[in-house]
Design goal:
Structural class: mainly alpha
Largest sheet: 2 strands, antiparallel
Mean pLDDT: 83
Number of strands: 2
Number of helices: 5
Order of helices and strands: HHHHEEH
Distance between the termini: 33 Å
Length: 177
């Protein structure tokens, strides 16, 4: 009876494998967040921008804002001090919340813009031109909000594990170090 000599997998290969799995999981989570953001926020904003009535526009804008509130966004008051540090992401959310408030006031007596003027304002605030196309304007990296730094650290650590494990495995000499 022959016994086969099975050599154990080197620790360096295990570390590299774990690093690779962590990188793949990080990428999949980022793609999942981006898809959810597009479905729950960008699509309703796009529908709001192309709405034919203020009522329809308000419905779609309310859906997007409710999802943003679930992500943890809160409107800062309009009377906030000017020197208060408000991020681009927070300013973008405030802009959407102000549009929603203006659309809710649309039917009230004494409100100046007509329905068509209000819809044009919504289009101007929500859409931007990019490479000749009109797309929904949103801050960079908002799909991973508020976990952007966590994803960055996760990607860096997993990449270092993968590269370090492979480097250790390649540099290993016959005596095994």
């Amino acid at each position: 009876m022959q016994t086969q000599n099975k050599e154990a997998t080197p620790l360096s290969v295990n570390i590299a494998g774990i690093g690779l799995l962590l990188m793949l999981f990080c990428v999949l989570m980022s793609i999942s967040n981006l898809t959810a953001f597009n479905r729950n926020i960008e699509e309703p904003l796009s529908r709001a921008a192309y709405s034919k009535s203020t009522k329809e526009c308000l419905e779609h804008l309310s859906v997007a804002i409710s999802h943003l509130k679930e992500m943890g966004f809160q409107k800062t008051p309009n009377n906030a001090p000017r020197n208060q540090n408000i991020s681009d992401t927070q300013a973008w959310f405030n802009n959407l919340a102000n549009l929603q408030e203006a659309l809710e006031r649309q039917g009230q007596e004494g409100f100046f813009p007509s329905g068509e003027e209000m819809l044009e304002t919504v289009r101007e605030k929500i859409l931007k031109e990019e490479r000749g196309l009109l797309v929904v304007e949103s801050p960079t990296g908002i799909s991973t909000y508020p976990y952007g730094i966590l994803y960055l650290c996760w990607a860096l650590v997993s990449t270092m594990m993968f590269v370090g494990g492979l480097g250790w495995w390649v540099a290993k000499d016959d005596n095994g170090y």
